Amino acid sequence: MPAICPTLLSTGSCNDEACSHRHDVIRCEPCSWVFATRNAYNSHIAGKKHQRTVQGKTGQALYCPICDRTMVGMSSNNWSAHKRSFHHAQAAAAKGISPNITPEAAQEVPNHSHCTSCDIHVLNYDWVAHCATAKHRRREQYAVFQAALDEAEKDRHGISISGSFDFGLIALATAQSGLVVEGTVSNATPGSKVSLISMSLASDKNTRARSPFTVVCKRYGPVLYNSANTAFSVTFCQQFASRAEDRLEILLEDTQLKKSFIIIRVLRGHVGNQADHDVLKPTAPYVPRQRVARAPETSVVEGIFPKSRKAIPYVGLLPEATIPANLASILLGKNVKDVIETIHKLYLPVVFDSNGYGRHFKLLLWVEEHRMENDLSTYDISDTELSRYESYHYLDVPGLAEKRPSVLVGDRILVQRKDTPDPGRWFEGGVHVVRQQEVGLRFHGSFKNASSTDRYSVRFKLNRYPLRRQHLALDSAFSEDRVLFPDAGHHLSMAYPTIASANIKVFNPLIAANAPQLQAVVSITKRPVGSVPFIIFGPPGTGKTVTMVEAILQVLAANPNARIIACAPSNSAADLIATRLMSLGTDALFRFYAPSRHKEQVDLKLRDFTHTTADGHFSVPPLARMKRFRAIVTTCVSASVISGIGIPRGHYSHIFVDEAGQATEPEAMIAIQTMADTRTNIILSGDPKQLGPIIRSNIARNLGLEISYIERLMQRDLYDEQEGYGQCVVKLTKNFRSHNAILKFPNEQFYKGELQPHGDRQVVDLYLNSSLLPKRGFPIIFHSLAGKDDREASSPSFFNIDEASQVKKYVEILRGMDRQVRTGIHITDGDIGVIAPYHAQCVKIRKLLKPIAEGVKVGSVEEFQGQERKVIIISTVRSSREFVTYDLRHTLGFVANPRRFNVAITRAQSLLIVVGDPNVLGLDPLWRAFLNYACTNGGWTGPDIPWDPSEPVSESEGNGYAEQTRGEALFDMNEFTRRMEELTVSGAEGEDDANVDRPWREAE
User: Fold this and answer.
1) Of 745, 676, 667, whose CA–CA distance to 709 is shortest?
2) How, if at all, do strands 26-28 and 381-384 pair?
3) Residue 421 falls within a domain, yes or no?
4) Which residue in 342, 360, 790, 924 has its CB near the most CB atoms, within 10 A?
5) Which residue, of 229, 260, 280, is where some domain finishes?
6) Residues 177, 251: one domain?
């Protein structure tokens, strides 16, 4: 068989008629490849390389006037990379202009067609495939619907509809009384005869939705001659704050032509607080922040750091553990799936066991670090000034008070003068002072003193010390399977000590009456050395920290040689442990804080259990005294100080990790990997059903970094809650926090209905008879509210003014400031907590509450884990109505995270209030089930539930409710479009040939 024509291979065509080579090949236009067989071609177009090529040649098209080049598939990052390219800079220099230009939108792109529905340029080769995608079809349907809607709003056939039907923002009292606007139907065409047939609302077709709009027209039927008018009125009456929208459809008939047609008007009403909207309205239109890739730092002049960096007498050095260059290169890839596959193939151990354990998690840490550094770059400042006072240069940092970015004493910030001739040279500033809005930096002596006219670029750099401590632990030789991968073979004894046989005297008398708590304490205290890890599984409000503290005290009382490390992921959780162990005295208990922590951040009663240097920085006492402490309490990351100062492995008999579900496995392993030996017992306390560790990288999450150590162990057969009870796990079941109505739903959803309400009746029953409740005796309120989610300036975080205003209203009622609603119950600001899933919403709510109840804590779900309040108010924020053009699951965002949901609704003791849009929340099966629970028990207020709450929720629906909603929206749109076409174009009923001459709509 002759070979394929080389000219065809290289150029794509061959015009030599005498050529004897093969030309019967199949060519892939996007890739410029040819294939000898159909099978080879089919394999190619199904492959990733072809798909990436096609995707790279489809998308937004930008034109660079400097390079005279059109580029397809461009994003802000692509454009930034193009601007930094050598060829672009060379072309700009040749033309004597700046390379920093704004791209132009490309009008025509060779070999591409513009899809107007999706607003992208599509490779001609891929046009048919693009038009077949679900996203394109949805957008095309939406475009057709919008065109039909726009057309139907126009006056036609000489008939005009006058009147303003947007009621605007209305006070609640006015809306409750009702507001009326007048409208007129007029005929301005001489000789025409048009009859007004009917006026109806689009919502009339929905049996569950009760529209707040009503239409009254006293005169139907008679012909509207020239200059004739018919008056009608639209009334808006609503009993609650919310937005409302409907469509008024006016059906008319030209009696001479026997043609019916519709003119529509959109009705809108918004009940809310004008003052709150004025205070919270967006400061500027939302413009996505342009993430500019950082150019490499070729040289960094070292800064001067605070003495706190040397407050700890470490005996060894931390490894640098920098990200391998080839891994960093792979992580720059755009396709997450491809990056994950490459990492699996090239880096991760084939088998996840003790041999490759350290390598596995070191890799995941590097992946997460790469993303953290990338995210931190979004806070970089491109044009600012520095002020000088004494030895410090002060820098204003927007968002510092909200920890966006988070900056601690000892961190490093890079600064560069804007007019520097060397763009790769930066000065490192050591952070010495952190205030509300500014940080104080110290630079090398060669840094020129700042003047008021100097402008600077600023880069925030990741504090790598926590990561380096985790790498140090993962590099250790500790690799015991009984700790890392425990199974039945590692059990020293299958029998476990019973409560009756233990005969111990408890320190906390409440534990004596709680069988699961007491069993956990007994099992831990009587545990043989070198046992598998023991888990205290503590659902919300069951007292897992109380159990852990009792176990620590019992271990120390039973064994005079026992030494304990107790750690937790956060300082607040570690402080709670230390506070409850203060009875040990200052000779036995030591609370270690990182030197970067300020004294004022530490509870006065714990300061006697700490050690500071002469300069006032937190540190450790001499090694001999450190060894004498029977219990050391610290955070998981700071636990590295124990081995770092020279205390030998095995010195501590027990390592306790509280709130272990919130720590990454490498974090939890710092104390274990550096200090445990074959005899050390490990005790974990937490709840894998609540929030896990915060992981920023999707890739790291996908590779398993979000799964905590305690969660991974509980997935093993050994830790079955029934079979392993008392041997290696105890599940606490008595809830001391919430009223049963609040506890019931999460109990059944997450804990098999095993939790038993044992809260203080004086607390949990506080609001049972309150007039605030829609139904007395059921202390849950779901406040249905159709608001609007907004963004502003460059912040991608959402906020909802309507919900923020409603939250403020509830706080005013709860604090007795509302004269119309009196609860008769006296609580303080500290008894109320407000949870919102978006940072911007937290900021807006704090702003509204500051003048009236500044002491109310407002924060994210993460900030409330482990906490409780008598009253919890949740603002869910999302209220998007883009049901067709956008992904509905994305509309919900992380509101639909089951763990976040679990934590949020289990913080309340006496009263739970949820403010949200059921149309959006109902897309998620878990939220839908909760809304059904609230509604069927009488806890609903506001607009009615938009579905039948008695219908069972299918847990297997997944994205089904989202697709169902999208389908209903599409049906409504298509049905409306069809009616508009029929009534606007077709003749009277009975004309069978009406479609013969109807033009076909041309496909884009």
Assistant:
1) 667
2) unpaired
3) no
4) 924
5) 280
6) yes
As a whole number of angstroms, the distance between CA 534 and CA 496 comes to 12
Confidence of residue 26 (pLDDT cuts 50, 70, 90): low
Backbone angles phi, psi at 101, to 5 degrees: -120, 165
Residue 494 pLDDT greater than 60, yes or no: no
CA 16 to chain centre: 61
DSSP lists the bridge partners of residue 594 as none
- Residues 749, 642 share a domain: no
| 713 and 572 both lie in a single domain | yes
Q: How far apart are CA 870 and CA 907, in angstroms?
A: 8
- Residues 582 and 729 occupy one common structural domain: yes
* pLDDT at residue 984 tops 80: no
Q: Are residues 61 and 200 in the same domain?
A: no
Task: Please give the structure tokens belonging to residue 650.
Answer: 């095995």
Are 943 and 786 contacting, i.e. CB atoms less than 8 angstroms apart? yes
CA-closest candidate to residue 250, choices 215, 226, 222: 215
Q: Using CA atoms, how far apart are residues 198 and 201, in angstroms rounded to an integer? A: 10
Which tokens hold the place of 581?
Answer: 């162990």
Residues 688, 764: one domain?
no
Q: Environment class of residue 56 by beta-carbon count within 10 Å: exposed (0-12), middle (13-18) or buried (19+)?
A: middle
Instruction: Give the position of tokens 């005899």.
Output: 679
Domain termination site, one of 734, 766, 783: 734
10 pLDDT more than 70: no
The residue segments making up the domain with residue 159 are 154-280
Residue 7 in domain: no
Token pair of 173 as six digits = 């009292």
pLDDT in tens, 255-310: 877 888 889 999 999 999 999 999 999 999 888 776 667 888 999 999 999 988 89
Worst-scoring range by mean pLDDT, 48-57, 393-402, 866-875? 48-57
On whether residue 382 sits in a domain, the answer given is no
Judge whether 650 and 500 are in contact, CB under 8 Å: no
Asked if 187 contacts 194 with a C-beta cutoff of 8 angstroms, the reply is yes
* Phi, psi dihedrals of residue 886, rounded to the nearest 5°: -120, 165
Residue 431 is assigned to a structural domain of this protein: no
d(CA 857, CA 867): 11
- Give the span between the Cα atoms of 936 and 929, in whole angstroms: 11
SS3 of the chain: helix, strand, coil, percent, to 5: 35, 20, 45
Q: How far apart are CA 677 and CA 210, in angstroms?
A: 68
**Do 680 and 777 fall within a single domain?**
no
Given a cut of 60, whether residue 890 has pLDDT beyond it is no
* Host H or E run for residue 875: strand 869-875
Tell me which amino acid residue 101 is: I
Which residue matches tokens 């996908």?
702
> What is the CATH number for 688?
3.40.50.300
- Give 454's contacts (C-beta < 8 A, 6+ positions apart): 385, 386, 417, 418
Same-domain pairing of 711 and 824: no
Copy the structure tokens of residue 230: 């018919």
Residues 185/264, Cβ–Cβ less than 8 Å: no
Q: How many domains does the chain have?
A: 4
Q: Which amino acid is at 974?
A: N
Domain containing 265 — which CATH number? 2.60.40.10
Token reading at 747:
């109990």
Q: What integer best gives the mean pLDDT of the chain?
A: 86
Residues contacting residue 102 through CB under 8 Å, at least 6 positions apart: none
Q: Which amino acid is at 498?
A: T
CA distances for 538 relative to 152, 731, 734, 897, angstroms: 60, 6, 10, 20
736/761 Cα distance (integer angstroms): 10
Distance CA 12, CA 9 (A): 6
pTM (2 d.p.): 0.83
Q: How far apart are CA 620 and CA 312, in angstroms?
A: 7
CA angle (776, 781, 782) in 5-degree steps? 145
Place of tokens 């907590």: 833
Sort 371 into a burial class: Cβ within 10 Å, 0-12 / 13-18 / 19+. Answer: middle
**Of 290, 328, 168, 148, residue with least CA distance to 236:** 168
